[in-house]
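Q: Hi! First time doing this. I have a protein sequence and I read that you can turn it into a structure. Is that right? Here it is:
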Amino acid sequence: MPPAIPLATYRLQLTADFDFDKAAAVVPYLKALGITHLYASPVMKARKGSTHGYDTVDHSQFNPELGGEAGFARLSAALTQNDLGLIIDFVPNHVGVHFADNPWWLDVLEWGQTSPHAVSFDIDWDLLPYRARDGVLLPILGASYGEALERGEIELRYDSEEGSFSAWYFEHRLPIAPERYGEMLRMIVKEAGAAETEAGKHLLSLAARYTGLRRPNRKEAPGFKAELREIAGSADIIARGLGAYRAAKDRPAQTLALHHLLERQHYKLGHWRLASSDINYRRFFDVNGLAGLRVEDPGTFAATHRLVKQLIADGRLQGIRLDHIDGLRDPAQYCQRLRRLVRDAQGTTKPFYTVIEKILCEHERLPHFAGVQGTTGYEWMNVITQVLVDAKGLEALDETWRQVSNRPPRLAPYVKDAKRRVLETLLTSEFTVLTRLLARIANGHYSTRDFSADSLRQALELYVLHFPVYRTYLTTSAPTAHDRKLIDDTIARARAEWFAADEGIFDFLRDALTMDLLQPGRPPHSAPRVRRFALKLQQFTGPMMAKSLEDTAFYQFHRLLALNEVGGDPASNGLTISAFHESMQVRAREWPQGMTATATHDTKRGEDARARIAALSEITGEWTSAVSRWKVLNAPHLALNGNLRAPSATFEYMLYQTLLGAWPLEGPADSGFVERIQAYALKAAREGKEETSWLNPHEAYEDGVKSFIAKILDPALSGEFLEALQTLARRVALLGALNGLSQLTLKATLPGVPDFYQGTEFWDLSLVDPDNRRPVDFAARHAALGTLDDPDWTNLIKSWPDGRLKLAWTRRLLELRNELPDVFARGDYQPLPVRGAHADHVIAFARRHGRTAAIVVVGRQFAPFTQAGREWPALDGFDATIDVTGYSVPGLAGNDLPLAQAFRSFPASVVSARAAGAAKPVRQRTRA
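A: Yes, that's right. Below is the predicted 3D structure, encoded as structure tokens:
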């Protein structure tokens, strides 16, 4: 049996091209590597052709493109045979909608608020303007509604097997409400000239039988459809008669008939650009095709988790990763329900591993949720990066960025500007829903009715602009002291920028956010509206921060790209070793079982590309000089037209960092590399929303950037630049490899569960998705692992670019975790003092459980020991000694462990040791 809490996880991205069977084929390799749990991307039925699985359309069945139930059974058998556990990535927050594959969504479109599934979606039914009936906006059209209608792109069709009518817009199915079938059949029979035929009479008789409002209703509709389906000859009449609704520019009557029919549905069709201002269902961020689920509804929770519960009960699922926990209305309630579900399924005999995708801002603490062991590890990835960068170099890079951007090296102004842009474009509709709700609350009592809708909108906008984290965690009860302080502090910052008369508007806003409006003795306000506003705003601030920080500011602020990671601070000043130790001691007490990641499907670049770029902080003088020279060499390749400069100066600076991070280890850059950089640059430019964007692409700028990249990477045009780039790239690659090995060692030995993203056991020089989801050559990795049973570290170091060195060290670290499971899974964390001239280049600590211990020594900032990346470090040149008092280390007589002895030929070391006395066990929070 695999351990309940993993010793190491390995993330696989499942797709139609890498399905359950192909995942099963690599399980023996994962076992040989030392992995204890396979960690899979979503496995439930997703949209056809999905490359990620987050667009789930049916939580109740396995994805048929991955192999369905039978394929999953084969994967489960392979895992059992190799004694590996399974963790799945689960998506409770949203589902894929539109198209024709989500049965719940299609039912809502057909029946509106009377659908039993309407409660599962967060739809504001009454917000569609200029419309007689409630409905949901469907922003799926590639042109204006009128153009799509007159072009005949919206087509009415009859499904003779179902006996149902639907409008179709290309691949999008739009069910027609059955209450309109009667009028349609009358028009169809008339258009077909079939009133006197037997089939026509039956059709008219069927239509006449259901009179009155909203008929046939939901109970009657199945019988109506079945009878329609059984009428002999009906399909032929309907096929001819649908011409009455066949819209075209030269068919005004038919166009109007189709328009009037569509206007009487439970939905309203619109151009995709309307989504930003008019959409009235909660989305995942700004993705129109992903609609938010109301898992706070007990029926919705039960239906979406039925398969998960069965897998746990069957012993085929040992853990779960909860995607986008911040999107949920009440994450605490959700986690409590999930824990009850787990206990019902497996009993309370052992823990069920549960981690959440939660992005923490700098200095933010993770709230405790029932049954949750921790996060997926973004915060620890950034802690590792920050302790490896050179803080002194960051000061120099501040000045370089100031000169390149002509702006101060402060992130906050970028984030604030980005939030304004996102509010004005991407998330306007969600913000409008909130401001309307706030205005209705204010209008509900005479004491607050004079707060105008416009003033409330401005006040709420200032609050959102100054809100410093992703969200609060209010429930229907009073806010915690932490959340109250967060709201109070944000209100104070917002009030400081308010130049109109205040007259209590911010006090009202604060009391609405904290739900203090509902306290006894206060003027009465609508309790459902106040609670809905306060809880719904929490679901808004998360996407707001994500789109503004991760997906905008991170692509504008390029001082050092290694720091531009999910949950990171691009303006960080680095982390001292003592601060690093302190954070790890806190983690050992509070979150010893959460994941530690260094690469995921969401990271902005591969872990070793990031490690390379971090090394630029060690050679800032050479880096700055190189950039200055490269800008001169590449100036002829810029696209210049009036005020247009492609790429911009800041974007060009970003490109040079990206090239060094991703530059091939062996051989020159080929056409495939050029295309990867161009694809990355296009995404980065659009995400940055400065010269171009996804909403409003600037074709001339984008073409200029693409051309610039092609020219500077063409040896015939840029030989001198490429020679200089490759010379520096070789040095940065070595420094990055050393950083990468240090990063790997820390990940595998710190408190927490190390997570390995697919393929990263070789050097990972990938870029942001989709580049980091390229196929992995597992056969090559498995074959290489087979040659490393007794690693020759000296030869592996000589051939370090081929990646076998990293693979061998990965397996060695995982062997140690499996040999000393209690030390790494339950042990405490003790910093070890380091003395000597180079003490600041060494991170040393002990992991200890009882008398068993491991001494971990990791080097950092290797430039002084490698001639700035020109040669493998001469480790005997390190003047540092680790004080191991309290531990007996094999081969060491005293308490001083010289660094040269610890490192030998390798810049990191993990040594088994014995503690002099039994340690007092660390008090850890237990989570069943």
